[in-house]
Amino acid sequence: MRNTLDIEYRVMYHDADMTGRLSIPALGNYVLDAAGLHAIELGVSMQQLASQGMTWVMSGMRYQLHLMPPINSTVQVHTQISEVSRISSKRDFIITCGGQPVAEISTEWLIINTRTRRPVFISEAAPGIESMKSADTGIPKYRHIRTAPKEASACRKTTIQYSDIDINSHLYSIRYLAMALDTLDPEVLKNGSIRAIDVNFVQEVMPGDTVELAWETSGQETLVEMRGDGKVKFRAIIETSQMEC
Amino acid sequence: MRNTLDIEYRVMYHDADMTGRLSIPALGNYVLDAAGLHAIELGVSMQQLASQGMTWVMSGMRYQLHLMPPINSTVQVHTQISEVSRISSKRDFIITCGGQPVAEISTEWLIINTRTRRPVFISEAAPGIESMKSADTGIPKYRHIRTAPKEASACRKTTIQYSDIDINSHLYSIRYLAMALDTLDPEVLKNGSIRAIDVNFVQEVMPGDTVELAWETSGQETLVEMRGDGKVKFRAIIETSQMEC
Hints:
2 copies of one chain form a homodimer.
Chain A: E1 4-10, H1 24-42, H2 46-50, E2 54-65, E3 74-84, E4 89-97, E5 100-113, H3 122-125, E6 154-159, H4 173-181, H5 186-190, E7 194-201, E8 210-218, E9 221-228, E10 231-240
Antiparallel strand pairs in A: 1-3, 2-5, 2-7, 3-4, 4-5, 6-8, 7-10, 8-9, 9-10
């Protein structure tokens, strides 16, 4: 049992977007996969929790993005648990490619009861997790987003399909993020100028649900909100800068 | 340079659907990635064609599906070129997991001029490809689908987003397939009863395009068509059987 996990991913064909470089959602896939593998090693895997009627859900993410590597590159992902509180734990990731920084990502997780869908105490559901944490990486943690796009902002409706859901039969966390990125000007996506993203997962979304995405851009920031049945499901703030590389 | 390529993929967290097993689209991602790696070895990669103003596009696929492996399994993918004609080549894949059959997939490819979007002669664009082929695997090749869903069939509109496109800046072939699977009854997707799929890629679809998916189920077959601007873009026939495993 190691308190940290280091693993490599090759940027596969489908992990690249139209720039020929690793896409932000594919990077998200890597880190969630690495988190799952580390949880297995630590004895707190989704599979083990499932046998007790519980599962991990993510409440937030913070991405800091540098230069995405091209297709067929190998990226190195380092992950560790950095914080543990009564009902949440924070897991950080440092992603590099040949020693060059690709991204830093911090995530926050809850354990929920799969019947009530309510959080349970981490210390009871995953005993000993406190001893599995490492010294904090110092990577910025995600922000709680307290603002909503204005009434008159752009919006789009979408219905959640089979291809949007994950092993927990609800909207896959990285699909929320991909839907948020889909609201951006294609030029922003093309020139690799996204520098940071804060993501708040507020409520589960189920297959068949119709949700509305609303967004507004102000300066270098785009605020995106997903809502359904009059409730906020998800928010993200995407920060861009002038292209450097 | 090997006339065949054998490569392994671990079923990552995001490669599984709600069944906890490899999804059909994720299997499609693996085989396209393997095709790309083999093309690099053979000197006919997309990157090399791009420098001459050309690219590979897929015109069809045939899937035969057995038992999908669970998350974190390792699958073995064998691939080879089985046929070469004037304007197309066929590439086959045999996918197994620990010696057990997972799937057989046959694909057909064209090389197009990236400016005119028209096919070019394979022998001119990829000289020597004839010598790279292997004895046919005998895997069934894809069928041309000549029928359309009836006027009154179910349908759904969707607009192609950033998260749907690939390195060629058009709708990613596996996203057409995922959209076709999204039309099925969730129970069919849950019980793993899909036995075969024929896929015809008829026309490119670009980001921002709004397309209509129409479908109808008759007995064990579902016929799906994607159309836009009055033209057929894609067709698929998905065959199911009673669940065996």
